[in-house]
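Entry for flavin-adenine dinucleotide complex. Fields follow.
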Amino acid sequence: MTAHSAQVVVIGGGICGLAAAHRLTRHGLQVTVLEGGDRLGGLGSFFSHGGQAVERFYHCLMPTDDELLGLMDEVGLKDAVRWRKTTMGMIVEGRRHRFNSPLDLLRFTPLRFHERVRFGVVSLLLRRLGSGRDLDTLRTEDWLRGLYGDRIWEELFAPMFGSKFGASFGDVPALYLWQRLGRERNVATRGYPKGGYRAIIDALRTSIEEAGGTIRLSTPVRRIGSTADGCSLTVGDGEVLAAEKVLSTVPLPQLRLLADDALASRLPQSDLRYQGVVAGVFFLRRKLTGHYWTPVLRCGTEFDGVVEMSALTGTDAHDGSHLVYVIRYTDRSSRLYRGEPDRIAARWTLQLRELFPELRPEDVESARVFKAPFVEPVHPLGYSTTRPPIVVDGTNLLSATTAHVYPDVTSWNSSVKLANRATSHLLDTLSRREAGEPAQ
Ligand SMILES: Cc1cc2nc3c(=O)[nH]c(=O)nc-3n(C[C@H](O)[C@H](O)[C@H](O)COP(=O)(O)OP(=O)(O)OC[C@H]3O[C@@H](n4cnc5c(N)ncnc54)[C@H](O)[C@@H]3O)c2cc1C
C-alpha cells in the first residue's frame, strides 16, 4: 500500500462517501468528510424510535452484494448479516395474492390463464433472452411488450415498475431491468445487518477516524471551485477550506448549484431527471401479509408498495411491533411530494386500514413520513455512452453519485463499487504525480 500525503475532501457522508473515505485513509491520505446533515448514512440514515435506530427508508442486502459484503468484512462485520428467505405478495384491485411459486402464478387471477403461463415461461428465460443484446438502446416497454404481450405489460409491468420511474418507465433502457433481475436472481433470500445499517455506518466512521481521517457533521458545502493545484470550498457559515482533490457524492443537480461559474462550465451538461420518494414508516401491533414486498396495484391508494421489514428482521428489536414501510416514488415537484409529512401520514394510515381492514385503529402505534428528492435517476436510452465521467475534466474534482452506477442498480453495493472505482482513479493519479509522470 503506497502512503500519500495528499489532502482530500469527500463531500457527503452517505455510503459512497464513507466507503471512499475509508479506502483513502487506509492508503494514508489525509481525508476530511464534510456532511451537511447532522448524521451519517445519507439515504440509509435513521431516526430514533424507542431507543432504536430505524432506517428512514427500507434497506436490505442481496446475496449478490459482493462489494458491500467485502467492505463489511474489512470493518469487522463479516458475520453481521442475517439472511432469511422472504416472500412476495401482490395486491391488485383490493385482492391479495401470493406471488412466489409456479402454483401462485397459476392462481394469479388478474391475468388470464394463458397469460399466466406466458408470464412464467418468459420470466424464466428473460435473463437469457436479453443476453448479448444491445438493451441499452432498447426501450423497456418495447422489449417487455414484445416478449410478454400488451396485457401483461399494461396490467403488471407498467404499474409495478412504472411507480419507480414515473410515466417514462417505458422509455428507460431495458438494460436497467435486465441488470436488476441479475441482482435479484435469488430474490427470496435477503439480508439485514445485526444492529441495522447504522452498524455499517458506525464501523466505517470508526475505521476512518482511527486511520486519522476527520468527519465533520452539519458542515454543508456551499460553494466549490477548482484551482490550479486543488479545490477551494466554502462551508457552513463561510469557512473556506482548500483541498488537493475533492470527491463529491452529492447528486448532480445539487452539485451544479454548488459549483462556481468556472467549475459549472466544466460539469457534464446533463438534464438527467430523478425520481424522489415519499415513505411512510409504520409501527403496527400486528403483521400485515408476512411478505417482504407487496406491490399495490389499482387499489386507489396514494402509495403503491408495502415493504414489511419485520418479515426479514423479526420483531424483537422493536418490542414485538411490526415495522412496515409504505412507499411511493414520485417527482419532487409533485403535489404528493410537496405535501406536509404529518398530513400524508394521517391519510396513509387511513388508506392502509382500508387496504387491510383487519387493522384496527389501536393496531397503529405510530406513523411517520420521510422524503428524499434525488433517489432514482431516470436514465435515457443509450445512457452507457452518455453517463457522466467520474473525473470532471480539467479540474481536481471527482464526482461519484447514483447517476454514475448505471447499468448497476442503485444500491449500497453499487455505491461501494463506485467508491472503489473513484478512489482507484484518485490513488492512481496521485501515484503518477509523485512519480513525476504526467496525469492521464
Ligand atoms: C426507499 C429506498 C429504498 C432503498 N432500498 C435499498 C435497499 O434495499 N438496498 C440497497 O442497497 N439500497 C437501497 N436504496 C438505495 C440506497 O439507499 C442508495 O443507492 C445509496 O444510499 C446512495 O448512497 P450515496 O452515498 O451515493 O448517496 P446519499 O446516501 O444520498 O448520500 C449523499 C450525502 O451527501 C450529503 N450532502 C448533500 N449535499 C451536501 C452538501 N452540500 N454538503 C455536504 N453534504 C451534502 C447528504 O446529506 C447525504 O448524506 C434505497 C433507497 C431508497 C430511497
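NOTE: Residues 303 and 328 are 5 Å apart (CA to CA).
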